[in-house]
Amino acid sequence: MDKVHKSGVAIIGAGLSGTALALALSQKSIPCQIYEARSADADVLTSGVVLTPNGCRVLDEIGVLSRIEAKSFLFKQSIIKDGEDKTIATTDVSSRDKKGYPAYRLYRLTLLKEMKKMLVERNVPIHYDAKFEKIISDTADGVSFQVGNEVNHAAIIVGSDGIHSTLRRYLTDRAPAYTGLFCVYGHIPTSPINWPDKDFYTGSCTVLGKPGSLFMVPEVADGTTLMVGTQFPYPEQDREGWQTYAASQIAF
């Protein structure tokens, strides 16, 4: 532990997991730094995230929950309907009485910005435009690693650099397995639509029809914006292939 307090922890990636880890370490007075390959203004997270009761508990422990509750949509049920608008399943998502915490939904970027703001308040540095390249050495004295053209040292290095993690390759040759499903989603205002019933927009709702499933969930505290999405089979692409596809209006 003395080594950790002396040399600190290096975190690769300033996403939700990397920033959450940094907040937890800062609470224990363990020095840490985050290295992020992208620039400070490159966050483009357009979808939301569900905070389950267990997730809310973790965020509460690191001081985040109270700061984002007012920006989050509180929902209690997840509903599944068939193509004829018949409710075929209802799942209780959250109950303070049973679990102590609710379930929330909010934009990922809203959550990420709040956690980064907290890191600034706690003087935890995030180095942007700092791409992790490779491990130089890994010994009992710590880890030396290259970021850009610089060599850095830490007691421990933690990879939070996403599904295409560079650091993961140092530990294993295994790569993420593609499930064969592609997701397309967008956001719509709730009020202009003549909904069959309020189940469609007052919580998480999935409609199982012949064309496939259509899922929807509010993204903001007052429920006025709804994420609507669907999934369909699509051939696997490499990282560049997905980026090209996502940028093509014709493909969509």
UniProtKB/TrEMBL annotation:
UniProt-recorded Gene Ontology molecular function terms: FAD binding; monooxygenase activity
FAD-binding domain ranges (all copies): 8-180
Keywords attached to this entry: FAD, Flavoprotein, Monooxygenase, Oxidoreductase
UniProt KW Flavoprotein keyword: yes
Keyword Repressor on entry: no
Assigned protein family: Belongs to the paxM FAD-dependent monooxygenase family.
Name used for this protein in its record: FAD-binding domain-containing protein
Annotated source species: Colletotrichum scovillei
Taxonomy of the source species: Eukaryota, Fungi, Dikarya, Ascomycota, Pezizomycotina
